[in-house]
């Protein structure tokens, strides 16, 4: 799931703030929103689309259980690191131009994924997809802000529910495409479908999106800082994904431990750049506020749990119960329906409930997980429709959190901190997704070996569900540290 965030701005004067919505003609801005939605869907779908397709990919190209985890984690890892600099590119060269370049490169990477002849080529192409998605995403939400100005809520009223649905629709779309097997493309169609959608976004966006000049001159990207952040993430995630299959040799523990000083080095570097008057990747002042620190913790726990659990359920259904991709995707359809319902309802409830809507959503998620936990503990495996009620409730609770979350987290921040804080949260979100895939995927495969029986799959699914439930309870506790109300647009 990709949250609604703004691109990362540098300090501006009032004259440099985004244009009011009146400067973009009414019909034109809605066509522009459609183009942005198409570009955003590319990232939303590709972030989760391999959850159902991974077993089919592995059957053709080979690889281990860790390979399945890397297909998802590689994309989100590249996206998380790239987002640290992605927003700056729009400020430097103009959002429309950067969005179009990012789109072209993303489509090229998608074509490479669809044409991959080895698992190594596919993994490399997935990482490239994530990196170019990091170029696109900040521009999309920055352009929405530019076009709608004070009427931003109208755009997000439409955007929010669609994001909630698309965030977990990837597995369902994947199942349908693999089953259709158009022109014999099989799993490759999940990447090739990006081409018509992306081309439509390119053509429409070229006509209707506001060009806009670079908002700030003289910015220089901190590529060294981004490289250090990437090194820290790799040091943490690589042993988590690979360690179980290798028997947790000493070097895997050393790598994870080494990630701590590397992340510390990144923070030190950002502090030094700020003090020297240079452009830093992150605005460290936001971490002096308890509300934002709590929000960061919530993002890591919540999105790690959701993304990792989504992968585990898809693996359980296909590798454990032997479902086909289409049967697995239909079994998970109630989750997507619930996310759509929850996202749609939260728009009206959030202003009244404030942060309490997060607690309400988490209670729904926990209720769904409790039911699933006992279902996976039964003597016989549940049928495909038996999981639907619990997944529906879980999806509704999850969807209620998606739309208001980031507005609540930044509720106590100053105006000049919003852009950097939002972009950083987006990066944390994607990093948490990669961490969730690595951690919950490792827990699942720790109990289930590919080719094992149904009983082992049930045990693995139950343990993974229990961990997801514990993380949901932890997220519930963290919510008390967040601002009571979402930030209002000025």
CATH topology of the largest domain: Growth Hormone, Chain: A
Count of structural domains: 3
The major sheet is characterized as: none
Number of strands: 0
- Along the chain, the helix and strand elements come as HHHHHHHHHHHHHHHHHHH
Helix segment tally? 19
User: Tell me, what is the CATH class of the largest domain?
Assistant: Mainly Alpha
CATH homology group of the largest domain: MFS general substrate transporter like domains
Question: What is the arithmetic mean of pLDDT?
Answer: 84
Determine the strand fraction and express it as a percent band. under 5%
Low-confidence stretches: 1-23
N-to-C span = 26 Å
Q: What does this 3D model show about the protein?
A:
The chain is mainly alpha-helical and 490 residues long. The protein folds into three domains: 24-210, Growth Hormone, Chain: A; 222-278; 285-490, Growth Hormone, Chain: A. The chain has 19 helices and no strands. It has helices at 26-48, 50-61, 65-93, 95-115, 119-148, 152-167, 170-180, 189-192, 194-208, 223-246, 250-275, 290-320, 325-331, 333-353, 356-376, 388-402, 405-409, 418-447, 454-478. The relative contact order is 0.15.
Give a brief description.
The chain is mostly helical. 75% of the residues lie in helices and 0% in strands.
């Amino acid at each position: 799931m990709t949250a609604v965030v703004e691109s990362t701005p540098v300090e501006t004067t009032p004259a440099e703030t985004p244009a009011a919505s009146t400067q973009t003609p009414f019909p034109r801005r809605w066509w522009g929103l459609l183009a942005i939605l198409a570009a955003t869907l590319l990232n939303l779908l590709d972030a989760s689309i391999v959850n159902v397709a991974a077993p089919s990919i592995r059957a053709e190209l080979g690889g281990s259980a860790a390979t399945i985890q890397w297909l998802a984690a590689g994309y989100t890892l590249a996206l998380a690191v790239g987002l640290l600099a992605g927003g700056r590119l729009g400020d430097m060269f103009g959002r429309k131009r950067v969005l179009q370049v990012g789109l072209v490169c993303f489509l090229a990477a998608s074509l490479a994924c669809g044409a991959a002849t080895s698992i190594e080529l596919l993994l490399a192409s997935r990482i490239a997809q994530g990196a170019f998605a990091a170029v696109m995403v900040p521009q999309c939400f920055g352009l929405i802000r530019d076009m709608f100005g004070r009427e931003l809520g109208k755009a997000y009223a439409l955007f929010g529910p669609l994001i909630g649905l698309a965030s977990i629709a990837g597995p369902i779309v994947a199942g349908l495409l693999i089953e259709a097997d158009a022109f014999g493309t099989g799993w490759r169609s999940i990447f090739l479908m990006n081409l018509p959608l992306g081309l439509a976004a390119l053509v429409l966006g070229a006509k209707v999106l506001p060009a806009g000049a670079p908002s700030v001159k003289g910015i220089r990207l901190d590529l060294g800082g981004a490289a250090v952040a990437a090194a820290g993430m790799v040091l943490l995630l690589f042993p988590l994904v690979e360690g179980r299959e290798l028997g947790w040799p000493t070097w895997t523990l050393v790598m994870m431990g080494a990630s701590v000083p590397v992340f510390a080095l990144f923070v030190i570097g950002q502090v030094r750049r700020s003090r020297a008057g240079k452009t830093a990747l992150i605005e460290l002042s936001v971490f002096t506020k308890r509300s934002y620190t709590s929000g960061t913790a919530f993002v890591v726990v919540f999105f790690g749990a959701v993304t990792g659990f989504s992968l585990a359920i898809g693996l359980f259904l296909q590798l454990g119960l032997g479902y086909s991709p289409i049967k697995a995707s239909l079994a998970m359809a109630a989750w997507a329906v619930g996310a759509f319902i929850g996202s749609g309802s939260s728009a009206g409830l959030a202003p009244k409930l404030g942060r309490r809507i997060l607690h309400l959503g988490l209670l729904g998620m926990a209720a769904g997980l409790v039911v699933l936990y006992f279902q996976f503990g039964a003597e016989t495996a549940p049928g495909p429709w038996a999981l639907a009620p619990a997944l529906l409730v879980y999806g509704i609770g999850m969807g209620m959190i998606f739309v208001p979350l980031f507005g609540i987290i930044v509720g106590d921040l100053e105006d000049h901190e919003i852009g950097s804080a939002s972009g950083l949260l987006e990066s944390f979100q994607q990093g948490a997704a990669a961490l969730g895939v690595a951690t919950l995927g490792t827990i699942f495969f720790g109990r289930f070996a590919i080719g094992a029986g149904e009983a082992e799959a049930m045990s693995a699914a139950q343990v993974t569900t229990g961990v997801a439930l514990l993380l949901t309870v932890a997220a519930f506790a963290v919510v008390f540290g967040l601002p009571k109300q979402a930030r209002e647009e000025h």
